[in-house]
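mind reviewing both lines:
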Amino acid sequence: MEAYSLGDDEGLLVALGEALRSGRHPQADLIQANARAAFSLTNLEDELASLVYDSLLDTVGASASRAATEVRIVVFESETLSIEIEILPDSIVGQVVPPDDVTITIQTPDGQPVLVDVDELGCFIVSGSALLTGGSAPLRFHVKRDHQTTVTEWTHLPPP
């Protein structure tokens, strides 16, 4: 790279352009996919369920070394419901509270929705799915009940 003087605006712009072209983030594609997914709300009337608990962030009583097969627990809450999820190495187990008649769809950044069966207690399980073999790709849950849809924040699965 050539040296440019501070008074040479054209030279500084050329140097900036060179720096930006050469400085590509190693996960730029994942960052762009996550950014597009973050703005892909199909309905602005959807209620957002915020992350209120994640066992990965829970340091109280955590041991220095965690087992690779440990269960990760995440809880999302909105004004009308709670979604409790356990992420296991080979499945996702969860429950919607209160257990009304709900439909759950899991969304990934590639846009392929996965419809989830929910029992009368609001419990569901997803196993052997492409969601679990996708590594740390983000996903979010759409919970529809009555005429209201609640969408969770994006969360990442742990690497396989």
Q: What stands out?
A: The first strand starts at residue 47 and ends at 54.
